[in-house]
């Protein structure tokens, strides 16, 4: 059964040093994202949705339901998905997918900016181009997870920069596998932000001029 919840906040010292809403708004207004020319390639889009609770910024993350054939099955992610023919553009796809996956309408939210595009390795040639848009929603309302979502979490942004939440994730999970950077945001064996979502988090904090430490393997 799909669930929603909130991660308990961490120490305030990280938040005060790293981020607040006015700083985020100013930084993203001036940020010029690096976009990947699609040239007819398959497209996807995600929404990084921020809100405030007790004066502290939080971000919405979802645990994707496990589904056969889904390369991101079970991963922590931002709401989003493939761009469909009826979508006017990638931003509209991110907003549609967010409403379908968690029931949050972004037409009442403030678009803060766009992050760099990323390429997702899904076994397809050419690879998927993924765009990310950052929103602030003052009153997102209750989360209504779809069957595609195992669990949805509102995570304090300070958790994403808390050194005590940094983990190394072996992928593939076998002897001799590489270790990739991750951030524990909930259950220690399930709720780990890594891969593409981690890279978008990196881009977000770099846009705020508060870059995360480089923890990627040399073979990246």
Please provide a written account of the structure.
The chain is of the alpha+beta class. The protein has one domain: Nucleoside Triphosphate Pyrophosphohydrolase. It is 20% helix and 31% strand. The chain is built from four helices and twelve strands. The strands form two sheets. Strands 1, 2, 3, 4, 5, 6, 7, 8 and 9 form a nine-stranded mixed β-sheet that branches. Strands 10-11-12 form a three-stranded antiparallel β-sheet. The longest helix is centred in the middle third of the chain and has 13 residues. The N and C termini lie far apart (36 Å). 39% of the residues are buried.
Q: Can you give keywords for this protein?
A:
220 residues; alpha+beta; Nucleoside Triphosphate Pyrophosphohydrolase; 9-stranded mixed β-sheet; 3-stranded antiparallel β-sheet; 4 helices; 12 strands; globular
What is shown here, in short?
The chain is an alpha+beta fold and 220 residues long. It has four helices and twelve strands. The strands form two sheets. Strands 1, 2, 3, 4, 5, 6, 7, 8 and 9 form a nine-stranded mixed β-sheet that branches. Strands 10-11-12 form a three-stranded antiparallel β-sheet.
Radius of gyration: 16 Å
What CATH calls the topology is Nucleoside Triphosphate Pyrophosphohydrolase
Order of helices and strands: EHHEEEEHEEEEEEEH
| Class inferred from helices and paired strands | alpha+beta
The total of beta strands comes to 12
């Amino acid at each position: 059964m799909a669930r929603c919840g909130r991660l308990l906040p961490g120490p305030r010292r990280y938040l005060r040093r790293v981020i607040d809403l006015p700083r985020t708004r100013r930084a993203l207004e001036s940020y010029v994202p690096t976009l990947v020319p699609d040239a007819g390639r398959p497209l996807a889009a995600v929404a990084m949705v921020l809100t405030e609770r007790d004066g502290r910024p939080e971000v919405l993350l979802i645990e994707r339901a496990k589904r056969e054939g889904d390369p991101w099955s079970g991963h922590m992610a931002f709401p989003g998905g493939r761009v469909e023919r009826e979508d006017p553009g990638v931003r509209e796809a991110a907003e549609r997918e967010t409403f379908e996956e968690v029931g949050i309408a972004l037409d009442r939210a403030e678009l803060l900016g766009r992050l760099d595009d990323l390429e997702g390795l899904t076994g397809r040639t050419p690879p998927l181009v993924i765009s990310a848009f950052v929103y602030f929603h003052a009153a997102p309302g209750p989360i209504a997870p779809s069957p595609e979502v195992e669990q949805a979490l509102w995570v304090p942004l300070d958790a994403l920069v808390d050194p005590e939440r940094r983990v190394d994730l072996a992928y593939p999970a076998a002897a001799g596998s590489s270790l990739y950077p991750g951030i524990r945001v909930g259950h220690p064996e399930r709720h780990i932000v890594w891969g593409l979502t981690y890279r978008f988090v990196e881009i977000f904090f770099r846009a705020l001029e508060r870059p995360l430490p480089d923890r990627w393997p040399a073979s990246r």
